[in-house]
Specification:
With 334 residues, this protein is α+β, with helices and mostly antiparallel strands. The protein folds into 2 domains: 2-84; 98-236 and 314-327, 2-Layer Sandwich (Alpha-Beta Plaits). The chain has helices at residues 2-6, 8-54, 61-84, 98-118, 144-164, 206-217, and strands at residues 168-173, 193-204, 223-233, 316-327. Helix 5 packs across helix 6 (206-217). The chain is elongated and about 155 Å long.
Length: 334
């Protein structure tokens, strides 16, 4: 203790040196760890940059110009597509009074009933062009514009169905639109057309289905999309042998010939007797004439079909879910 008291300066200097050395060691250790962390982060970032540079879409000048060119081409294609559907885009859908829409609906219903009656196509009892809820009530005034557009399309579809030769219209279902329930239709930003769904169920021969489907693509000024279709045969059981009908061919008796056989077959010993003709006196005997061959048998009358057609005469049951596409106004591209 006396030495420390006698050498206070040396002791103080030694303690300060020790504390400084410890602090310097701690600072150096911490700096080393931060350097190592920074070096590791730099190496990782450099690796990511190298990987991005090797990628096909690295934002260099060449890729930037290529992207701008691709966007311009895509914009032009979208504009051409909108122009291609211009003929299917309806003009302004103007609302009419509810009573005028009801009068038009009744007139269309009468025309369709007349067309179905002429084509002998059976209609369901509650048929009213898919607008059965307006038999006793009026439509909303803000919904008559889109309903008029839908009614005109349904009229053309039903006339095409009557013309196709369908035997019965079983059902025509039209889901209500938002405007009919007092709501507003708000299209999404990505929508370019508004679908107006319809469900049609009918029966008829196979050619009626082909004719009706062909009429859908020939609908002028309207674009119809088939969402789903189901076709089933009215006959669930396979054809049986009793379904075949054989034609009865009338037998034609061959005409009698001048010779004694008359064109038929004669067995030996059954030859008919021929009376000898008396030759007048002084006349020369008739020369012998060789017997003519029998004439060919007459062709059987009729169509020549022995077995009538068994398959293909049955009717088909058809269910169609359609979307009448009402194209929205042209969108301005960014």
């Amino acid at each position: 203790m006396s030495w420390i008291k006698d050498n206070k300066f040396v002791v103080a200097l030694g303690c300060a040196t020790l504390v400084g050395a410890v602090l310097l060691f701690l600072v150096a250790s911490k700096g080393t760890s931060r350097y190592e962390q920074a070096a590791a982060d730099f190496a990782a970032a450099a690796a990511d940059v190298s990987r991005f540079e090797r990628g096909p879409l690295y934002p260099n000048r060449e890729n930037r110009d290529g992207k701008s060119k691709a966007i311009d081409e895509y914009r032009k294609s979208a504009e051409l597509l909108q122009a291609a559907f211009e003929s299917f885009r309806p003009e302004e859908l103007k609302n009419v009074s509810p009573q005028d829409f009801t009068n038009h609906l009744k007139a269309v219903d009468q025309d369709l009933r007349k067309a179905f009656e002429e084509s002998q196509t059976k209609l369901p009892d509650p048929f009213f062009c898919g607008f059965e809820n307006y038999k006793t009530s009026l439509a909303r005034g803000n919904a008559t514009g889109i309903l008029e557009y839908q009614l005109a399309a349904i009229q053309n579809l039903m006339l095409a169905l009557a013309k196709s030769g369908a035997s019965e219209l079983k059902n025509l279902h039209r889901p209500p639109l938002p405007e009919e329930e007092g709501k507003d239709f708000k299209p999404q930003d990505t929508e370019v057309a508004r679908p107006l769904p319809l469900e049609i169920t009918f029966s008829g021969p196979e050619k009626s289905l082909r004719g009706f489907l062909s009429s859908l693509v020939q609908e002028e000024g309207r674009y119809v999309v088939i969402r789903s279709i189901r076709v089933s045969n009215s006959k669930k059981d396979p054809p049986r042998a009793s379904d075949a009908q054989f034609e009865k061919t009338a037998l034609v008796k061959p005409a009698a010939a001048d010779n004694v056989f008359g064109g038929g077959f004669v067995l030996p010993g059954e030859e008919p007797k021929v009376e000898a003709k008396k030759v007048p006196e002084g006349a020369a005997p008739a020369p012998e004439v060789a017997a003519l061959p029998p004439p060919p048998a007459a062709a059987p009358t009729g169509s020549g079909r022995v077995l009538s057609q068994v398959l293909g005469n049955e009717e088909v049951q058809v269910f169609l879910r359609l979307d009448l596409m009402c194209f929205l106004p042209v969108k301005k591209l960014p």
